[in-house]
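Troubleshooting log. The previous structure file for this entry was overwritten by mistake, so regenerating from the original sequence record. Sequence copied from the archived sheet and checked twice against the printout by T.R.
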Amino acid sequence: MSSRISRRQFIQTAGLGAVGGAGVALTEKSNEGRTPASLAQMPRLLVGCCAYSFLKYLDAGKMTMEGFILKGVAMGVNGLDMTTYWLKSTDSDYLLSLRHLAFKEGMPFSGAACRAGLLQPDDAKRREVVEEIKTWVDRTDVLGASHLRVFAGKLPAGATPAQGVDWTVESMKAACDYAAKKGITLGVETHSGITQKADITLEILRRVDSPYAGITLDITHFISDSDEDLYKQIEACIPYATQTHIRDHFDNHHPIDLDRIWQMFARAGYKGYMSLEYQGREDALIAAPNLVQRMKALSKKYSSV
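Regenerated output below.
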């Protein structure tokens, strides 16, 4: 995963798109003879998949989380993001059974994802959400994963963005303090509400100021009037990305240039999962494996693995 950056570096980040261009492809695949310092700069763009990709099948009971693990094996991904909405139980015995199945199949969990929303105007509700996240940290630990996705959320009527950031930072600081004890990183997702603007998301991360805080960087949902600015917002967040959700279309239905996305992550030296979160119109059982193959080709082109 990426190292943290200073405010000055962040301000410069949006302009990095012009640097390097198409020449970022890694033609030297062997790491033999490289120094630890040079290896530290090499990107590791691991292809993953989120359980959410199979939303319709999981909602309908046509796929279980065990089935999702086996589907990930069949697709040949490097890790699976366990969206927890479809766990049939949160008892440790069941979570351990999933962990054991994944181990037997040689499939790591890239993380877990819960619904908890940090942006709460009420003091008591903020404390309640922190306790909810602590519970999910414990469950993530039982699963054997090291990353948990959380949300910020939408501003309530009459609240200002500054207030929303204050509330989110307060909750995330407390949650990260607890997660650190388990070695688990919390990634706030760029999904909806205040995190749909990169500058606000990065302000949250700067103020939380924890090595166990990061961004679950969903490349789809930023708000802007131009596609070019959407790419700039994605790129600005990459140095803080601790997990990435990949789709092939923005929310405005314009196709995403995934080759460009992989180049941006490679230039930043990102080390982590590029996890498919398919939500297209085609049948996920067909479309998701096809998109995974595209992603694997891009990682082979731009990554050290």
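The domain at 41-302 is CATH 3.20.20.150 (TIM Barrel). Archived copy saved in two places this time.
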